[in-house]
């Protein structure tokens, strides 16, 4: 039992409040997932730059002077912003592979949470309210985002096991449910060159979708193929650079509810996650259908 929230803003005047709204939604879902929490926020693009969101178990040691060291190694200026155990490196796309190699050499304990023009992921072990506070998520802005509160069932409780999982550029996934064939599917994907950081079944789902899309499938096609390849029960919320999507398994035993107004589209594992959104009393409220992909894009 985990909690999922998502918010896609149609009204740009709400963008300064994205972090505040999503944080409140996520905290409401704390009893569905008290052991760890995470959030993916999209927005705040900088021209011609990618954002690498990093996490370190020893941030004071690993992040001290990291931007200068990477700049020296690559011969190009790299800048960095830090938030508690996470930091965001801003690099040009041409430097991406070189920067990732430099990070592995200079700071092998650092883990990459996400890469993209728009996405930033912040996740840690602890009660969701504490995770929100330590990263000051309520102050963050953006166009859309998804969040997750975790009750671990499939793997160890640690930072890497928390959601969201990002396995592609500006892509991420959160999951409520359990996949029964994730070990066999992981082995298959490893043979096809996919790298994994954890034993978590949700990372397999994220990597499966990314792998399918890297082979030419659209996200809709990847999700539809997952209906036969992903054995288990699930509600997925998927973040992309331009929007977000929702997909439930054919049985749809995991709860899900959506609200749409002319200002936003919102997702929650339960309706109580949505009750404090502006104008929700006039929203169209519905439950997503089984085995049916839903998408909203800017």
Tell me about this structure.
The protein has 298 residues and is α+β, with helices and mostly antiparallel strands. The chain folds into two domains: 3-44 and 128-297, 4-Layer Sandwich (Glutamine Phosphoribosylpyrophosphate, subunit 1, domain 1), CATH 3.60.20.10; 46-116, Alpha-Beta Plaits, CATH 3.30.70.100. The chain has helices at 18-28, 59-63, 66-74, 96-106, 128-135, 182-191, 201-214, 219-229; strands at residues 3-9, 36-42, 50-55, 79-83, 86-91, 111-116, 119-125, 144-150, 165-168, 171-179, 232-239, 243-248, 257-260, 264-268, 284-286, 294-297. The strands form three sheets. Strands 7-2-8-1-14-13-15 form a seven-stranded antiparallel sheet, with helices on one face.
How would you briefly describe this protein structure?
The chain is 27% helix and 32% strand. It contains eight helices and 16 strands. The two termini are 31 Å apart.
Relevant terms:
alpha+beta, Alpha-Beta Plaits, 2 domains, 7-stranded antiparallel β-sheet, 5-stranded antiparallel β-sheet, 16 strands, globular
